[in-house]
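Appendix B. Raw example, untouched.
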Amino acid sequence: MRLTTPAATGRKESTTATRSRARRALRARRWAGWLFALPALAFYGVFNFRPVLMSIQYSFYDWDGIGASTWVGLKNYTAVFTDQEQLSSLLHAFYLIVFFTVLPLALALITASVLRELQGRFTGALARTLLFLPQIIPGAAAGVAWTWMYSDNGVVNQFLRAVGLGSLARPWLGDFTWALTAVGFIGTWLSTGLCTMLLLAGIGKIDGSLYEAARIDGAGPLRQFRAVTLPGLRNEIGVCVTITIIAALASFDVVYLSTQGGPGTQTMVPGVAVYNLAFNDNRLGAASALAVVLTLIVIAVIAPLQRLFREK
């Protein structure tokens, strides 16, 4: 039979009391954290989450924003995939991924690798500054500037005529064949600098001894790029892809300021289509349905990519 002494009982009670106080202190700190975050959460709920819920609600109604609304169920969602203009806007958004994501990422990988080899600090700093300049220019301003550059007497056509390719000159944003591609190159110009800066930061974190070991093993620049640089930039590439795909699918300012979806509907994208449906056609239900579908598409595209690029 084991006897418990008063001293042992006291130590046990003291330990239990200490643990209880620690748990209370931990709960108090957690509640304190939520209290600090509460103002931000309140603003997010009022200005972000509530409008999303309202858009979902509106998407089931036929409503002009002023008069009485009529319940139409899934009719607005059906129209997204049967109405030619709305469906083509979604397809155009996916086409823009080539120019907002694929081309900028490829150019950024090449540029970042070249800048890593530049030894002069001034040259590297100047190149970084020039590359990042497009990122600080608002998309609306870029759209206006490129509208002038793409005009018949703009910089692009003047350059083509100067190098003997005047037969290729055209009003690019008014051409039914080339308008969407021309808009896409504006996105390439805007995205390349950001991707380059992110990849340069990632290259700076790669251990230099890995490159040294690769050189000792006889690896050339291309082999070093494949074996050292690309694996080391897994996270940064994931960030670039995520940001630029969202920019492509949710593009609005560049397209609206440069073409407003024209000529015809050749450059219509979901963002501009939602704006037109809501404020020009007074069809808030249809606009909300398209916005909800676009949100779901963005989530469906980004979620697998996040898992793909997650560091193991």
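End of appendix B.
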